[in-house]
Design brief:
Order of helices and strands: HHHEEEEEHEEHEEEEE
Organism: Paracoccus homiensis
CATH topology: Porin
Pfam families: DUF481 (PF04338)
Shape: globular
Distance between the termini: 32 Å
Helix content: 10-25%
InterPro entries: DUF481
CATH architecture: Beta Barrel
Protein name: Putative salt-induced outer membrane protein
Strand order of the largest sheet: 1-2-3-4-5-6-7-8-9-10-11-12
Largest sheet: 12 strands, antiparallel
Number of domains: 1
Structural class: alpha+beta
Keywords: Signal
Number of strands: 12
Length: about 300
């Protein structure tokens, strides 16, 4: 099926502006010492955030699995830094994603591991996160999905592990938080200009707070998830999206989010995205938060 590539210009612009990750350690001689490289890295981070926003709005999965890469593929990355002298600290981050697609079945697993020590050499981060995503397509419209997430923060233990660590706050913080859900999905509309898919399912959420860790306890509850993804091309230069998600459970507060986005490319050099996000959470004092977002890319 024909793909709509309205934001290819924006992607090309940001690709041209971005510096390859391994091309050089500084943008020019002396840039590190002068602090120029640090600012340049921040500029790159902002550019990456903007292009991620554009890519998500374009919704690469809106037409289904027809053009998905087949077979086994993935990536791994590692980052380490350590310092000695006036301060002794270390930071280690490992991340990776592995995907396997074969005909109607697609799945991926992601993992992130982060360890850190502060200037005194005390551990201030020890976190592990994992995600799972899978879809099985019975035909062009009907599919089944599975979503999983598990996070561990080992420093949430009700004990002051380092100076500035508030053990009392850790009693209510989550040490472990996991969710696994699955269910059916259906593409209500699926043509060149308009796509709309909905999915809903049931899941299980597992949590353990710092206090529950001390008490050798945890909590498992039934969860419910529902999502809608709508995409409509208004003309060759503009499209609108509306993404809605609902997460509920037997005990925890219900959460509903909706993001309405308008994306348009005014020229090959200029692309804009305007979004309005509403988040509703049950039982809080002000239940609804609203956020207006504007992303603009201009290349010359």
């Amino acid at each position: 099926m024909k793909k709509i590539a309205l934001l290819s210009g924006a992607t090309a612009i940001l690709t041209a502006l971005s510096v390859p990750a391994f091309a050089q350690t500084e943008i020019s001689t002396g840039a590190d010492a002068a602090g120029v490289s640090e600012v340049d890295d921040r500029i790159t981070d902002i550019e990456d955030d903007v292009i991620d926003s554009f890519d998500r709005s374009a919704d690469a999965d809106r037409f289904g699995p027809a053009d998905r890469r087949q077979g086994l593929f993935g990536s791994m990355s590692l980052q380490y830094s350590g310092s000695t002298g006036n301060s002794d600290s270390q930071d280690l981050a490992i991340a990776g994603r592995v995907s396997y697609n074969q005909a109607p079945f697609a799945q991926s697993v992601g993992l992130a591991i982060e360890f850190g020590e502060n200037d005194n050499g005390d551990k201030d981060k020890e976190e592990v996160s994992a995600i799972y995503d899978a879809q099985y397509y019975f035909n062009d419209r009907f599919y089944a999905f599975a979503l999983g997430r598990f996070e561990i923060d080992s420093l949430v233990d009700g004990v002051a592990d380092y100076a500035g660590d508030d053990a009392s706050d850790e009693l209510s913080d989550l040490r472990r938080d996991g969710f696994l859900g699955f269910g059916p999905g259906y593409r209500v509309v699926n043509n060149d200009t308009t796509t709309w898919r909905i999915q809903a399912g049931v899941g299980v959420r597992y949590t353990q707070t710092g206090q529950q860790h001390l008490d050798d306890d945890s909590e498992t509850e039934t969860g419910y998830i529902a999502s809608s993804r709508f995409y409509h091309q208004i003309n060759d230069m503009m499209f609108v999206t509306n993404d809605t998600d609902y997460l509920g459970s037997s005990d925890a507060d219900d959460v509903i989010t909706n993001e309405l986005g308008l994306n348009f490319k005014m020229s090959d050099q200029l692309a804009t995205r305007v979004s309005y996000t509403t988040e509703y959470q049950e039982n809080r004092e002000i239940r609804t938060d609203n956020t207006l977002g504007v992303a603009v890319v201009y290349g010359f």
